[in-house]
Structure formats: structure tokens, C-alpha cells
Design brief:
single chain, mainly alpha, 168 residues, Four Helix Bundle (Hemerythrin (Met), subunit A)
């Protein structure tokens, strides 16, 4: 086993372990911090796959945007510390059965497939060519997507302000 395999298994254990922490945590703040480690583990796996642009996007969008939004939502809620997720056997049985079926299928596929052995591909930078394409060839769709997101944001603010003024 070389260093690449060791890093892969370490990040895979980090990602899966923290994802399990998200699912089974009874405290919503602990679940959010477990989600942080899950996102970083996935980004590290992207780096190992030589997908540096997707790894950076993963960190910027999910950790920088989604997770921060979740944490602020938790912290600004008055009863966030007192939220306890109720777990019972009846609620856990269907997810455990589905997870068992999926795990059995994956194990069956992994053991019966003949995987070709291939060496590591040389590392190639992907962020620079993708960035160059976004700013040259695909600049119009990129700008249209940003305008669409801006219009959606303004629409959400207007809808939120209308709801607030109706209550008063």
C-alpha cells in the first residue's frame, strides 16, 4: 500500500464517519459540525481524483455557503439548543432496511465485477482550463446564470418582506 491508498482510506473513513455523525446525532449543532467534516472529506477525495476545480467548488459552495447558512439558522433560532430528534424503532426500521439492501447490492457488485488494474494518472490541473473556458467561450451562459440567481435572490427578499408586512 502506498501513500495514495492510505490517504484515500483515511479521507473515506473521515467522510463516512462524519456522515454517520450527521445522521445519528441528536444535537443539531453537532450534526452541523459533522456535516462540515463530511464536506471537507468529499473535497479531499475530489483532490485525490485530480478534480481540483470540483474540490474548490465543493469547499466554496457547500462549506462557505450552505453550511454557514445552516449554522446561522441554528444560532439565530431561539430554541436550537433544545431541539432533540426523537428516534424510535419504528422510524429507524425502514431506513435500516433500505441501507441494508443498498449495501448488499454494492457489495455484490464490488465482489463480482472484474476491475482492471490501472496505475495512477499523472496529475493535471483542471481549474485553469475550466476558468479560461468560463471567461471566454462560455461567458454568456455563465453571466446569464448569475443574473438568474440574482433575480431569484431579489424575488425571495420581496416575498419575505411581503410576508413580514402582512403579519404586522
Amino acid at each position: 500500500m502506498d501513500w495514495y491508498d492510505i490517504l484515500f482510506y483515511a479521507f473515506a473513513v473521515l467522510t463516512i464517519g462524519s456522515a454517520i455523525g450527521v445522521v445519528f446525532s441528536r444535537n443539531i449543532v453537532y450534526a452541523a459540525f459533522s456535516l462540515l467534516f463530511t464536506f471537507f472529506g468529499v473535497a479531499a477525495l475530489y483532490v485525490l481524483l485530480s478534480a481540483d476545480f470540483i474540490a474548490i467548488t465543493q469547499i466554496l459552495l457547500y462549506v462557505g455557503g450552505v453550511l454557514v447558512l445552516i449554522v446561522f439558522g441554528i444560532m439565530l433560532t431561539t430554541r436550537a439548543q433544545k431541539v432533540e430528534v426523537k428516534q424510535g424503532f419504528i422510524r429507524l426500521l425502514p431506513p435500516v432496511l433500505v441501507a441494508g439492501i443498498i449495501a448488499g447490492t454494492l457489495i455484490g457488485v464490488l465482489t463480482t465485477t472484474k476491475w482492471p488494474a490501472a496505475g495512477l494518472a499523472p496529475y493535471e490541473e483542471t481549474a485553469r482550463p475550466i476558468g479560461a473556458l468560463l471567461m471566454t467561450t462560455f461567458v454568456l451562459p455563465f453571466e446569464l446564470a448569475s443574473i438568474l440567481l440574482l433575480v431569484a435572490l431579489i424575488g425571495a427578499v420581496i416575498i419575505a418582506r411581503r410576508e413580514k408586512t402582512r403579519r404586522v
